[in-house]
Amino acid sequence: MKKDIVLTGITTTGTPHLGNYVGAIRPAINLSQNTNVTPFYFLADYHALIKCQEPQRVRQSSLEIAATWLALGLDTNNAIFYRQSDVPEILELTWLLTCVTSKGLMNRSHAYKAAVAENEENDADKGITMGLFSYPILMAADILLFNASKVPVGKDQLQHIEMARDIGARFNHIYGEHFTLPEAVIDEKGAILSGLDGRKMSKSYQNTIPLFEPEKKLKKLINKIKTNSLEPHEPKDTADCTLFSTFQAFANVEEIADVRQRYAVGIGWGEMKAILFEKVNAEVAPARERYEALLLQPNQIEEQLQIGAAKARAISQPFIAQLREAVGISRFSA
Ligand code: TRP
């Protein structure tokens, strides 16, 4: 039986936070243990260059993200875990795809349009690089190169998956059926965590709790989560409560029912924060130790990434040769 290929990339511009963990990393790690699928997970460092021109930050983020996934128990026997820039076929394919992608399709990209919208009318393209403009083509290459059928992403990435389908279909139409057309997988019930201020946890709101913050700092940050000003003993509503929804993302059914009951009879916010800290910390503490150890041994991380890249290239090299042939740029003789 041919296994489903599930593929997703992580842009290397930040430090993983609890929202990333609950929404994307934890489900991806769980899936890596499912031998009915072959997951491809990669550090999207070429994507990082689109939004970040600070080399030190891109490098540090790549290291932190790789260490995070490994510390959390990513099964690298089953999953192929690699750095995008270690697979040069991705860039080769990007060009082949660029040449079949209509500019009009890229003009409609939300990310590009949002950047234009922020500019004055007389210089609509101010500060917009070709990297940003053609970002969806690079992403299409990531996906199509490995014939991924399922791509787990956040809602904000839906359009890019649609574009990958359009681009793949266009190539197939011109040169023959080479690519599987991918589908986005949006985890509807997957938790979206709120941040310290109650808005969605996001680096751009600066309201995040880093996943592997040392214990003391984790406690401090959880104590900072915004609540209303109800006193202890006053009954409280679990709806729209960041403390409760975060707890829900870490607790089992009975624990949730129990805390819900305590809200009804008026749990104090201080007490709830202590409960939440214990719950989150219990889940992340073992991985945090492995994470800190791994950061001190970048060679070990690199070794894993090189194994992943070799596995990826065993697929991408013959495939790109086939594609070169298809478009007419292969050698005259073997
Ligand atoms: N652009 C994606 C994001 O910002 C990351 C990404 C890059 C990706 N290439 C991908 C996701 C391919 C899925 C498939 O979240």
Describe the structure.
The protein is mainly α and 334 residues long. The protein folds into two domains: 4-191 and 298-327, Rossmann fold (3-Layer(aba) Sandwich), CATH 3.40.50.620; 212-293, Tyrosyl-Transfer RNA Synthetase (Orthogonal Bundle). The chain has helices at residues 18-32, 45-51, 55-71, 89-98, 103-107, 110-117, 130-144, 158-175, 215-224, 242-248, 253-264, 269-295, 298-327, and strands at 4-11, 37-44, 80-83, 150-152, 183-185. The strands form two sheets. A three-stranded parallel sheet has the order 1-2-3. Strands 4-5 form a two-stranded parallel sheet. Strand 4 (150-152), helix 8 and strand 5 (183-185) form a beta-alpha-beta unit. The two termini are 33 Å apart. The model has no long low-confidence stretch (mean pLDDT 96).
Blueprint (SSEs and pairs):
Layout: E1 4-11, H1 18-32, E2 37-44, H2 45-51, H3 55-71, E3 80-83, H4 89-98, H5 103-107, H6 110-117, H7 130-144, E4 150-152, H8 158-175, E5 183-185, H9 215-224, H10 242-248, H11 253-264, H12 269-295, H13 298-327
Parallel strand pairs: 1-2, 2-3, 4-5
Helix pairs in contact: 2-7, 3-12, 4-7, 4-13, 7-8, 9-12, 10-12
The protein binds tryptophan.
Tryptophan binds at residues 7-9, 11, 44, 47, 139, 142-143, 151, 153, 157.
